[in-house]
Write the structure tokens for this entry.
Amino acid sequence: MDFIYSIIPPSILCQIFVGLSRTVILFIVSSGMSLILGVLRIPNVFHGSLYMIGAFLAYTITTVCAGSPFGFWLALIISPLVVALIGLAIERGLFQYLYESEHLMLILFTFAFSLVLGDIVKFIWGADYKSVPVPLIFQGFVSLFGGLPFPVYNLFLLAVGPIVAFFLWFLVNKTKIGKIAKAAAVDREMVGAVGINVSWVFAIVFVIGCLLAGLGGALMAPTISVTLGMDHTIIIEAFLIVIIGGLGNMWGALLGALIFGLTQSLGILLWPQFGIIFPYLAVVVVLLIRPTGILKSTW
């Protein structure tokens, strides 16, 4: 361990772990967007609004269940499911009629929906800042790398990341719906020609993507102030991650989230005044080297 410390100072190692915990949220949200983009060919601009709704729902559930040790866990279950139901209603009510539309129209449509959802959130929860308490089991710090404090909740996030990644791998590669979705992403007409209801395949994929957005919001809620506008930041970051990872490639989203999260975290440590610039510089460098993204695009 002393040899590692001689190469990488403990403060930087700790900051890398902070960046990895942030990467988990970015990956969860971006993978949902990438899944929808890869299969449905929809650049879902209101994906960030679903993330915001997930955070506000987590606030409501933990507030109602204040004092209960199960409030946070209920929020992690109920919030994504409610967001998924919202996504299903939107997809069945509107999106299924727009799959053949031009991408510009889809972008404008989803942008308009993000404004609508933002107003709905403001009407229900108001414009005040909300806070979600860290669950009692995850409060406090642990000592890492020579005694540096590291939040227990961030360790929990680091454990959640691989679980979500395994779930997505299993879903895409080992389940029937995942294999059909992969086939539909390549040739949806051929999938429909063999008697498969492509419309409902798209609906299921869209719902899973929305569920991931809601899960990301619920997980992030205890670490930030839950407020209007939090959707804007995450949607910009998610789009950039999807672009540098490769359009529609979920594992590209993982690599993109790692790059974005780690450069942001280390940038804040090395140059706090301009730390926010570092991930965007990393995006520029990646696109200069690989204009089509790190991994193969599904487009």
About this structure: The domain at 7-289 is CATH 1.10.3470 (ABC transporter involved in vitamin B12 uptake, BtuC).
